[in-house]
Write a sequence for this structure.
């Protein structure tokens, strides 16, 4: 009789344990959303992300504006150089949204107050169309005349390239961003900047 | 006897529900056969629940193909990207899932695809980007393919195994050359050449003549004099246009998906462990003629009652060979001039699937045998335990009931993993054609994403490339 009671208790404990396990195992699927500051570094997959884009743009523009070409130009022409951002070619293994990076570059250049920044090719077309429409539909005293655009002195262009190395679940991701400032009159490269980022992503083969 | 009949009847009713679901692949194939790609995609989309969480990769693969054929390249890339990310995630295996699969069947494991299928994810994505005119993104996929194949080559030491992909390399070469990167194009063509040569024995794919021309042209353009001499010696009868001549022309690349990829089915091995069990297996085989999935319920009851038969399920490949040996692509200009190119076999998907399965078969068999032995031991233990617990009088029928249930379930639950990327074709053919710039009307069977009745008109610019994909299910 005692044995039977003991067996019953053991079974009850087992049932409680199993139910507990099932309850806990169900908790893993809950979605959790946390708001974080946009400056917080969030390396989730190891791929190129917003932090990389922002950090590279900031450091490279700062570096570009600290080089002598800027002072040389300002002293000789007595004005700020006019810069346009050209093509940044994606030569990497990832589908990087290059436009985000270009926007970061444009923001840094504009906010530096050391150069005059003019709209790039795509934006120019839109602005020119607007002027054409103004010529047709806007009041004459508010129309903006064509032929008054500021021509750029320099074009900033570059590439984003990657080198990947992977073995046994460990991936070394090497990003190299090359930017150059080209004199639009002489084709001379007045500045050449390079920023490298290296990340190591380790994946476990087995987990419990 | 009455109890036994009742028990057997209940058990039959229980496992009758274990039959295979009506395959949506029939609907997909029927839609592909009549070139209704939207309907084919709808059939895959509606079956999303059938795929379940364990086959997310497979769902993305199947839909990626049907969406490409339907001309929705952006959506196709979206689902293929998800599949690729899932493949990366599945690199990490969980002990819990592996254990569950060992105790039940491999179908409970998440499907990560064979290596050639993983390569095909990037191939399809590259084509989607190229057909959308997003050539830089197509090159991203070319670089990913290069990386994927390099990692595969490092991991697979057996040189006779699938560790390179001739078609994937060849396609990346075409993408590089189309964007003016002759150096990388030459390297890709050379790797494709080496791969086609080294895998000829099992890939059932010869070296495409067009690839020979591509090697000669790019080696010449890069002034690689020694390589050019070597290739001229290797391909003495092949003529080619120089890069300078070709850059004045427009290129059309036709990729033809012919036939249906092979499917997999269960191959049941019934292992008797007593003389009467051997007689039962032989008798059952004689009546049923084959070890088909449809006979599984009856087999489970028979073997469950006998209690001395262990069933092992292994996957078997069923080829579905295409009847289309070659396609032609004809471009008719506004001036009624006709230019025709014949496609060549560049990828035999059935051969790749066969190779992939044969490479994994030893591991699958060992695992299946161990699983079957474990299931039998557990069933035997449960039967004896139940008999002892029931006492002397009830032991015979309790033993029979528990034995039928546990051993029958062990037989019924045995199932091979038959998942594979079935929206792939049996063979992939390719043709490259260079024509003067201008307007052309395309004359070829069915083009993916295009209304076949109205045909297709191409506006070709000098130095430009247009990629066309067609699907022929015959």
């Amino acid at each position: 009789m005692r044995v039977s009671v003991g067996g019953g208790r053991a079974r009850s404990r087992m049932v409680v344990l199993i139910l507990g396990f099932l309850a806990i195992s169900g908790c893993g699927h809950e979605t959790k959303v946390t708001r974080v500051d946009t400056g917080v570094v969030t390396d989730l997959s190891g791929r190129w992300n917003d932090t990389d884009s922002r950090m590279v743009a900031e450091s490279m523009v700062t570096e570009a504006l600290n080089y002598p070409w800027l002072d040389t130009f300002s002293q000789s022409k007595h004005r700020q150089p006019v810069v346009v951002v050209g093509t940044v070619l994606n030569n990497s293994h990832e589908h990087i949204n290059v436009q985000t990076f270009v926007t970061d570059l444009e923001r840094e250049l504009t906010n530096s107050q050391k150069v005059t920044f003019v709209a790039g090719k795509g934006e120019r077309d839109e602005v020119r169309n607007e002027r054409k429409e103004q010529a047709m539909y806007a009041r004459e005293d508010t129309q903006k005349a064509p032929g008054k655009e500021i021509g750029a002195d320099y074009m900033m262009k570059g590439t984003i390239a990657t080198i990947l190395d992977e073995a046994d679940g460990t991936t070394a991701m090497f990003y190299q961003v090359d930017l150059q400032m080209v004199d639009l009159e002489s084709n001379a490269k007045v500045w050449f900047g390079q920023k490298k980022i290296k990340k190591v992503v380790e994946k476990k083969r087995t987990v419990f | 006897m009455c109890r036994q009949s009742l028990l057997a009847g209940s058990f039959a009713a229980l496992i009758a529900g274990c039959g295979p679901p009506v395959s949506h692949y029939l609907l997909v194939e029927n839609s592909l056969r009549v070139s209704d790609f939207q309907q084919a995609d709808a059939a895959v989309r509606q079956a999303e629940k059938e795929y379940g969480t364990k086959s997310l990769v497979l769902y993305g693969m199947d839909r990626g193909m049907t969406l490409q054929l339907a001309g929705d390249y952006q959506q196709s890339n979206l689902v293929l990207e998800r599949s690729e990310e899932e493949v990366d995630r599945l690199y990490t295996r969980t002990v819990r899932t592996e254990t569950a699969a060992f105790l039940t069947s491999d179908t409970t494991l998440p499907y990560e695809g064979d290596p050639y299928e993983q390569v095909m994810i990037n191939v399809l994505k590259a084509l989607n980007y190229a057909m959308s005119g997003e050539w830089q993104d197509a090159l991203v996929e070319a670089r990913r393919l290069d990386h994927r194949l390099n990692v595969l080559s490092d991991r697979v030491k057996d040189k006779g195994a699938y560790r390179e992909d001739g078609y994937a390399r060849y396609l990346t070469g075409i993408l590089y050359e189309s964007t003016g990167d002759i150096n990388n194009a030459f390297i890709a063509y050379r790797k494709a050449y080496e791969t086609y040569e080294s895998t000829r024995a099992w890939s059932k794919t010869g070296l495409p003549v067009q690839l020979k021309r591509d090697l000669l042209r790019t080696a010449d353009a890069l002034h690689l004099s020694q390589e050019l001499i070597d290739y001229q010696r290797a391909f003495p009868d092949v003529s080619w246009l120089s890069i300078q001549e070709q850059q004045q022309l427009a290129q059309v690349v036709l990729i033809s998906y012919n036939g249906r990829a092979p499917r997999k089915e269960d191959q049941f091995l019934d292992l008797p462990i007593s003389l009467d069990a051997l007689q039962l297996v032989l008798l059952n085989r004689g009546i049923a003629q084959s070890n088909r999935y449809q006979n599984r319920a009856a087999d489970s009851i028979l073997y469950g009652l006998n209690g001395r038969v262990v069933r092992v399920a292994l996957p078997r490949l069923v080829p579905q060979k295409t009847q289309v040996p070659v396609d032609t692509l004809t471009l008719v200009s506004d001036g009624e001039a006709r230019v025709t190119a014949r496609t060549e076999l560049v990828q035999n998907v059935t051969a790749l699937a066969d190779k992939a399965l044969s490479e994994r078969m030893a591991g699958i068999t060992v695992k299946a045998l161990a699983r079957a032995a474990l299931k039998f031991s557990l069933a035997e233990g449960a039967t004896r335990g139940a008999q002892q617990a029931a006492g002397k009088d009830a032991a015979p029928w309790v033993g029979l009931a528990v034995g039928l249930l546990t051993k029958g379930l062990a037989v019924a639950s045995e199932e091979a993993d038959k998942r594979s990327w079935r929206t792939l074709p049996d063979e992939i053919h390719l043709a490259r054609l260079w024509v003067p710039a201008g307007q052309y009307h395309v004359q070829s069977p069915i083009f993916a994403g295009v209304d076949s009745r109205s045909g297709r008109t191409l506006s070709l610019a000098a130095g430009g490339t247009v990629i066309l994909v067609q699907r022929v299910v015959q």
Notes: The interface with chain A takes residues 88, 91-96, 136-137, 139-140, 143-144, 147, 151, 154-155 of chain B (CB under 8 Å). Chain B has a mean pLDDT of 86. Residues 349-412 of chain B form the longest helix (64 residues).
